[in-house]
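Customer escalation, tier 2.

The customer says the design service returned an amino acid string that "doesn't look like it belongs to this structure." They asked us to rerun it and document both sides in this ticket. The original structure tokens are below, unchanged.
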């Protein structure tokens, strides 16, 4: 008369429990990081123009083209020319109600002035007359049937996007609004 080994069953159940717990912790960590960015981050305002507000699979969204998405090559502060996909740090300063790029660094600059902010991005293209940058803030989902009206408004004048930038560099869009008249 053979009896099943209780340690094998216990080990399998324990492994499955640990796997489920690890997945739940990962999901909670991702959600917590987003909330922490909004709660602890510094809010900056960027100018943008929306483009192409509809995706058949995901619904209404705005593809945002910021005024800091394309900068002059004279803002580059690196010893070598920027490369495609290179991470960069953009130093921002408030000008006329929104933040504008004042310098682009290959490494994080130390101790910016209190009125300045640093946004992390990547070089998507560089040429003689400009640098094209991406911040992972270029897509913003809006409630169904509101994307067209925001695109129409954005076609007449730029929209203002409030972005929360956490002290550890993560950024998150918190609000998209029309430019006040």
């Amino acid at each position: 008369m053979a009896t099943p080994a209780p340690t094998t069953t216990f080990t399998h159940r324990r492994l499955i429990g640990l796997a489920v717990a690890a997945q739940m912790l990962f999901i909670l960590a991702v959600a917590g990081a987003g909330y922490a960015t909004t709660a602890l981050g510094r809010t900056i305002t960027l100018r943008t123009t929306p483009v192409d507000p509809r995706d058949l699979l995901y619904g209404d969204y705005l593809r945002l083209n910021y005024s800091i998405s394309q900068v002059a090559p004279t803002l580059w502060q690196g010893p070598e020319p920027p490369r495609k996909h290179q991470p960069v740090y953009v130093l921002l300063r408030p000008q006329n109600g929104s933040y504008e790029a004042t310098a682009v660094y290959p490494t994080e600059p130390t101790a910016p002035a209190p009125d300045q902010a640093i946004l992390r991005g990547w070089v998507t293209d560089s040429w003689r007359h400009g640098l094209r940058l991406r911040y992972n803030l270029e897509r913003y989902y809006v409630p169904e049937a509101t994307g067209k009206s925001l695109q129409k408004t954005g076609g007449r004048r730029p929209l203002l996007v409030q972005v929360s930038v956490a002290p550890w560099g993560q950024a998150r869009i918190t609000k998209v609004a029309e430019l006040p008249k």
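Tier 2 assessment: The sequence is consistent with the input. The two ends are 87 Å apart (CA to CA). The CA atoms of residues 142 and 156 lie 19 Å apart. Sent an explanation to the customer and offered a walkthrough call.
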